[in-house]
Amino acid sequence: MKVVIIGGGIAGLTLGILLHRKNIDIVINEKAIGIDGRGHAFLMSDDGYSILKELFPYAKVPLLSKKVNQFSLKNIDKEELIKIKLDGWYCMKRVSLISFFYSLLDNNTLKKGRVFSHFIFENEKAVAAVFENGEVEYGDIFIGADGSNSKVRDTIFGKVDFSNIDVKEVVGISSRSSIANQYAAVFQKYQSKEKGLAFGFIPVSSDEVVWFMQYDSTFSNGQEDSSPENLSSFCKEMLKDFPREISEILDANDFSKSYLWNTRDFEVLPAFHKNNIALIGDAAHLALPFTSAGTTNAILDANVLSLFFEEYNDIEIVFKKYYNKRSLNLASHIEQGRELKKLFLNPKLYSERGYILPLVSDQEENQDAGLIKPLKVLYFTDPVCSSCWVIQPILRKLKLEYDDYLDIEYHMGGLLPSWIGYDKGIIQKPSDAAIHWEVVSKKYGIPLDGDIWIEDPLQSSFPPSIAFKAAQLQNNNKAILFLRRIKEMVFIEKKNITKWELIESAALSCGLDSAILLKDIAGKAIEMFQEDLRLKEENNITSFPTFLFMDGLETKLTLKGIQSYKKFEEAIHQLIPYAVKKKWSYSAIKLFEKFNYMTASEFAFLYEVTQEKSELIIGELFEKGLIEKLENKNGVIWMHKLAD
């Protein structure tokens, strides 16, 4: 079997290399003779990057890329609107990726200077591709990877209806080491509050910054496309009110190498193939650039198609399964791009809370929303409550085994308003809390360091409590992770979690938007916290933790203080006799991926192994470099490597 690929861009090269490694005869036909060195660069998610990583050992040229860890959106007055952590995103120049691909090929598989003209057909199937230079390539299967203006697509499906060009984009690469170092690993974007105009940049190396300017196409008459000088003048005039660093980037740019992009898309095709001709990448589907998904999708197309080539002998089955696997996801990207375009062109009509973050794949985003569970549980807790720290493993096990039945609502109890006039029995001042925490640590065998109350005592638990309520406004599941994280900070790491820089660090690590969090802490979150305190008083809650098992508005059962897991199970079965414990089968590392941080005793409890076995398993994960550890004088907490 011989596969003829028409188009030697990202999609075509990826597919050709993957098929070639499966010992399938391939020829890649590319119209260009050299590598386009203009200002092409892009973001790629780990979905695509992980496929490329498998090719690293075989490439003669390394893939030069830069990891991107954070996205920040500001208005032109430099007010931060969005700030969020990114996981598994990379920035790279197109020339670097193409050079990496070329090093994996030989001259027999890559034919350059071939501009596609037409197919030769026999019995409705293509048998050869003909190129404008008169050369002919015979084959059994033909793949159109010839970009958004695909002539292969036109041949098998006719012309598509492109959307209007409402937004244009200029892309360039500037040598500006000061900005590259200042914003290392940050995707920084500035958006006008008044009109469809934005500027974004990402360091692509220690001294280079890839940048783009997006603008409403009605702002220009096409003059910017006539010469590099006009393009430079146009960009600088459009961005004259933006921060000074933008003009620095533009001054360092060679506009003869910049690229002007007329952005558009088209509807998802009814199929990606006809007989023995198929399409991949932009030839098959095209989303607006707001999604930052084009390059990743091209690589995913190639990978999925290559896997089906290996699995099935019938090419019709291969192409149909490829379409079924990819089309729904691609349709969602096209729709997302259109929604982002609406927001971009009408910035006055949306707030940062309604902004879509295409870079964040949030598959568990409020996944319980709208799902009615048979039993509501009101959980009253506090970020500095040591007993609440002790029962953390129980809450996690309930999540694993009884999540289908329990709707657990987290409410803050306001344990420490301040130390002025504070009197809770044995605890009346910070040094008393230090002693109490040491006692709790020894009694229950959990890591807990009371020295925080000597070295940097918290004056109140209200600030982190209000921060938790602010987190709930964004995403309840992430808010629970955030609460766990700030507890780890105070109980294990001896960090004063009333300080904003620590609250922000915890928020970002849990996928929360810290810019919005800060606004909510000063606003609605205070009201929500006061409502929690009112609810506590109404229910006569005097100690933490307290769990109220509710049936409608009536409390059916109450559990107070540190209780065994058996007590919780008994309560569940008393109120829901038909409840069945869920069987789960996470591997050890998957359990760390789910919960990020665990003590050895917590892991033993969840994984249902002895403490000795737990330490052995964790030790093996640590030796493999999959987890890290945080130590204090009373114990160790283990951290999944991607959690930081």
What is the CATH superfamily label of the largest domain? FAD/NAD(P)-binding domain
Please indicate the percent range of residues in DSSP E strands (runs of 2 or more): 15-25%
- Strands, total number: 24
Structural domains: how many: 3
Q: Number of helical runs?
A: 22
In the CATH scheme, the class of the largest domain would be: Alpha Beta
Structural class per helix/strand content? alpha+beta
Query: Share of helix among residues?
Result: 25-40%
Give me the Rg, rounded: 29 Å
**What is the arithmetic mean of pLDDT?**
92
Question: What would the CATH topology of the largest domain be?
Answer: FAD/NAD(P)-binding domain
Low-confidence stretches: 362-366
Quaternary class: single chain
Cα separation of the termini: 47 Å
Overall body shape: globular
Major sheet details: 8 strands, mixed
CATH architectural label of the largest domain: 3-Layer(bba) Sandwich
Structure commentary:
The chain is α+β, with helices and mostly antiparallel strands and 644 residues long. The chain has three domains: 2-64 and 94-162 and 267-342, FAD/NAD(P)-binding domain (3-Layer(bba) Sandwich); 375-575, Glutaredoxin (3-Layer(aba) Sandwich), CATH 3.40.30; 588-643, Arc Repressor Mutant, subunit A, CATH 1.10.10.10. Helices cover 38% and strands 23% of the residues. Residues 362-366 have low confidence and may be disordered.
